[in-house]
Each structure stands twice: as C-alpha cells, then as structure tokens.
Design goal:
mainly alpha, Potassium Channel Kv1.1, Chain A, three-stranded mixed beta sheet, two-stranded antiparallel sheet, about 55% helix, disordered N terminus, disordered C terminus, ubl conjugation pathway, BTB/POZ_dom, coiled coil, BTB/POZ domain-containing protein, NPH3/RPT2-like
C-alpha cells in the first residue's frame, strides 16, 4: 500500500512538472522549431525567439534553405536550465532574478545575443541592472554570484562579473572595517581621542562568508582587499579560517565515481590542496606577526608534504626565520615526508630556516640600536631573540640526536650556525651532544673529539660540569678540560673571598663561575651578569667558610684525642722535636752570636 502511494505521488509529481514546464508555451499553436541543449529538447516557436535573440535569428536564417527546423546549441553557459529561463523571457513569462541565477542570465544572454539592439529591455540589460544595483550592494549576494561563476568561466570573467563582485566585496569589507574602527574610538583621561585596543573588532564578520569560495576566486577577492587597504591582521585571520575549512575537508573540485581508481583520486586531492597552499602563501601579508608562526609552520609542513614549488617553500622559510624566536619545539619538529629521507625529521628545512634567522641577525647587528640601552628589559630585542633561538636549537638537537640515521655533519652544522654569544650556557648543547654520543656509539675517537669541540666547557654550570666529569662517553681530553675549569672555578672562588667585590677591576670582562662570556654582551647585560655572579660567589664563599670551621673543629678534637691516648714520655719527645721548629725562637745566623732573649 505504501509502495502504491509512493508510485502515485511520483507519477503526479512528474505530470505536474511536465504541465509546469509547458504552461508558458503557446499550447494552441503548433511548434515550428526544436532546440536541443545538453540532450534536452525544447519544442518552441520561431517568432518569440528571433524577436529577442540575435544568435537564434542567425541560425534560423542559415537553416532556411535546408528546411530543417532542429537546432542544437553547443556549450551554452548554464546548460538547459539557463536556456529555459531565456526562452521564458522570450515568451514573456515572468520569473524572479536572484543572486543565484543572475550570473547565468548574464552569460546566456551574451551567448544568445539578447541585447538592446534586438529588443528594448532585453534579458541582458535587465540582468546587468540587477547585478549593478542590487548584487554589488551586498557582500553576501556577491559571494553567491561568485559561487555561480565557478562553472561559468571564462565567460563570466570576460563579462567582468567576477571583477565587479570582487571589487564590491573588497569595498564593503574595507568600509565595515573603517566603521568598526570609528566605533572603537574613545576619549582618554587627558581628553585625547585614542583607539580602544581591548574592544572586540566586529568589522571582520565577512571572514566566514568567503570560506565557501573556490581557491582561484578567493585569491582574487583577497588580492582586491589588500589593494583596498584592509588590515593585515584581518587578511591573516581570513587566510587561517580558509585553510582550516578547505584543507581539512574533502575536495569538491572532483566527482569521484565508483569506477575511479584510488591513485587517481589521491592525485586529484593532492593537486587541489597544492593549489590551495600555494595560493595562501602568495596572499600572506608582508607585515610581521600578521599571522601566528604556528600557522606558517603548518603551511610549510603541507608544502613539503604536497611537494609545492620551491619558491613557495622558500618564502615560508624566510617568513618563519624572521620571527623564529616565537616558535616552539613542536613547531620545528617537521617530519620527513619524502620516502627517500634517511632521518625521522626534516633537518635540512630547519637548517635553511636557521640560515634565514642568522642572516637577519647579521643585518640587524650592522645597525646601531640606541634604544636598547634605554629599555627596561635586561636584554636588547636582538640579544633576547638570540637567547630564545639558542635554547630552541639546543632542545631541537636533543630531540633529533636520538635518531641513529642522523649524520654527524648535519648535527654539527645546526649546532654551529648561531654565533658564539648566543648561548650564555652550554648545558643544553652538552645534553644534545651526550644524547648523540649515546645513540651513535660507533663513532671513531676523532669524530667524538670533533663533536665535543662544539661545547665550551667554561660555559657549563656546576651541575653539568659535575656530570661531564664522570661521563665515560666523552673523550679523555674533554674530561681533562672539564676538571681543569672546575679547578679554576674553585680557585677563583677562594681568591674572591679575600677581595672587596665592590672594587673589582673593570677590565675583568668574563667569569668562569657561571660560564657566561660577558664580553659578548652589551654593557647593560654585562653589569647584570657581574652582579649575579657576585651573589653566587658570595654564597659559595659562605659555604667554604662553614666547611673550614668544621675542619678546624675536627682538628681540635683530633688533637685532644691524641693527647689522651699518648704517654707522657712520648709527648715530651714530641714536644722537644716540635720546639726545634718553633717559629718564635730566633735561630743563630751568620754574623750573629748572641742568643735571643
């Protein structure tokens, strides 16, 4: 019974649709022309068509001598649905023009030559009027039109439908941003007008709307926005949103059938995502901090995995190197996606990023930074970035050192890429070298000495020095160096206990105690380091004095025990021998014959 009802409803819907499709034609006049579009035939009449369509008029004139009344329209934009709207318009049937069909109407009117030269208020002029006066005033409607243009290229581009919509979107977004900026203006306590940075910016509501566009049209919209002066932060936020929605979902540019091979589907997916990544990289703002560095690393991993162009990857590496001090260890641990790679992580890419960072630091070192001495921070921005990157590199080396396939040359080239003053302590580098020696036990003595030369044992802390002195994996020469510097550190600590720390010579530019090379720092950093080292030395001297007091007490107790246990005769003999070495008795010398009093 239910199946019978469904079949009845289906037959009724078919008959209703057929009646609706034919009700706009002249039912009492037999058709004199048949037009075929994409396998669908339309039995129509010549007069209403040729009165408004220049193309059909020419085709009818060409087939007049042959006597045929059947015409096939090839490559009609929008297919049979667009032609049905055009035919209804020729028959005078009213239908609504919306943002979902105006692009097709513009293209089909151009294809059928339905301009003003054939009839007044023709389909082409009406669609163009709606596009200019209605669609271009709304950002959402422009996005709808651009979605329809995806299947109408390149004709939609030739008719400037795409350019008009992209310019309208860019203008609308820029205007919204300006209005939002004005709403965030407020008067300060001094009566001056200033921007409230804590207020939420509501002028970027269009970001989610643009994520539905295909990548080529999205790229054109964002390029137009950048030309209009949209904020780099807004552009970056839109790029992140688009990447998150497009790169994490199944691509829509292909329609996989049941007979499609798996490798072909994979290739199509990779091709689409490759286009998306390269487009996003080309749209990145030139301003620093416009996008998070984690997003740049995510794009770089995708670019490496999808084998994007070399220019795309180099651009990402350069951008990451410019703000590497903000990266984390998880960011730079880039897996090796190539099958031919012999290491677990992509060490070559990280090396190129560090090269970009070092070149940036070299260029900044050539310029004087006067404001660095006036800063409240203990380090200048450049020195602070170096310290952060040095710790990041040491942590990275400790992670990749456990890979048995990592070559010694690659390990050393990353460890040596930063300048000497970048590391105030070599504890992290020592840990990485120790892990590398443990994972590569087949190294020769020469290679072990070579890798241990990376460590400046003067810059090891007391705990790291104690560990290194007992580390059997280190070469004997390195252990001797560790013991020597520990001895020098202890001797300096003892000497400093008898000196006035407030009147130290200014030429002492480095200290062994902390292992930090103060000469490589700025004067402000040098002064702070010296004060810190002085505190450490005072603490060490206090410990030594307490130890000396304990030793003196032990000596007194030992002497008392010896006096109780020894006999009186032994003590007299011992006292007589000691009296010979008395420091208070003047011994006879050459030229003196009188005894002391």
């Amino acid at each position: 019974m239910d199946l019978h009802n469904k079949q009845l409803q289906l037959s009724m819907s078919k008959s209703t649709r057929q009646r609706c499709n034919n009700e706009w034609m002249y039912s009492d006049v037999p058709s004199d022309i048949t037009i075929e579009v994409d396998g669908r035939t339309f039995a129509l009449h010549k007069f209403p068509l040729v009165s408004r369509s220049g193309r059909i008029r020419k085709l009818v004139a060409e087939h007049r001598d042959s006597g045929t009344s059947r015409i096939e329209l090839l490559n009609l934009p929008g297919g049979s649905e667009s032609f049905e709207w055009a035919a209804k318009f020729c028959y005078g049937v009213n239908f609504e023009i919306t943002s979902l069909n105006v692009a097709k109407l513009c293209c089909v009117s151009d294809y059928l030559e339905m301009g003003e030269e054939y009839a007044k208020d023709n389909l082409g002029s009406r669609a163009e009027t709606y596009l200019d006066t209605i669609v271009c005033k709304s950002l959402e409607m422009c996005v709808d039109v651009l979605q329809q243009c995806e299947n109408l290229l390149p004709l939609a581009d030739e008719l400037k439908i795409v350019s008009r919509c992209t310019d309208a979107i860019a203008s609308k977004a820029c205007a919204e941003q300006i209005a939002s900026s004005f709403s965030r203006l407020e008067y300060s306590s001094s009566g001056r007008l200033q921007m409230n940075k804590q207020a939420k910016c509501e002028g970027d509501w269009w970001i989610d709307d643009l994520s539905v566009l295909r990548v080529d049209l999205y790229q054109r919209v964002m390029a137009a926005m950048k030309c209009r002066g949209v904020r780099p932060e807004s552009v970056g936020a839109s790029l992140q949103n688009y990447a998150q929605k497009v790169l994490t979902k199944k691509p829509s540019l292909w329609n996989a059938s049941a007979h499609t091979k798996a490798d072909l589907v994979v290739n199509l997916i990779e091709h689409e995502q490759r286009l998306v990544v390269e487009a996003l990289v080309s749209l990145l703002p030139v301003e620093k901090l416009s996008v998070p560095i984690s997003f740049l690393f995510g794009l770089l991993q995708r670019a490496v995995m999808l084998d994007c162009t070399i220019a795309c990857r180099l651009d990402l590496e350069r951008r990451i190197g410019a703000q590497l001090e903000m990266a984390t260890l998880d960011d730079i641990l880039i897996p090796s996606f190539r099958h031919t790679a012999d290491t677990l992580f992509d060490v070559d890419t990280v090396h190129r990023i560090l090269v970009n960072f070092s070149q940036q630091e070299d260029s900044e070192d050539d310029m004087e930074d006067i404001s660095a001495y006036e800063s409240d921070s203990p380090c200048s921005p450049t020195q602070s970035a170096l310290l952060k990157v040095a710790k990041l590199v040491d942590s990275y080396l400790a992670e990749v050192a456990a890979d048995v396939n990592l070559k010694l040359t690659k390990f050393m080239v990353i460890a040596e890429i930063l300048p000497a003053h970048a590391r105030t302590t070599h504890d992290g580098l020592y840990r990485a070298v120790d892990i590398f020696l443990k994972a590569h036990q087949g190294l020769s003595d020469l290679e072990r000495k070579k890798v241990c030369k990376l460590i400046d044992f003067q810059k090891l802390t007391q705990e790291a020095g104690a560990h290194a002195a007992q580390n059997e994996r280190l070469p004997l020469q390195s252990i001797v160096q560790v013991l020597y510097f520990e001895q020098v550190r202890l001797r300096n600590a003892l000497c400093c206990s008898y000196m006035d720390t407030e009147h130290k010579p200014m030429h002492q530019s480095w200290r062994i105690s902390s292992g930090a090379l103060s000469a490589a720092m700025s004067p402000r950093d040098n002064y702070a380091s010296l004060r810190r080292e002085n505190r450490e030395l005072k603490l060490e001297l206090t410990r030594l004095r307490m130890r000396l007091n304990d030793l003196e007490k032990d000596h007194v107790c030992m002497k008392k025990d010896m006096e109780k246990s020894s006999s009186h005769k032994f003590m007299k003999s011992f006292s007589w021998k000691i009296s010979k070495f008395s420091f208070f008795t003047r011994s006879t010398s050459r030229g003196s014959s009188s005894p002391s009093k």
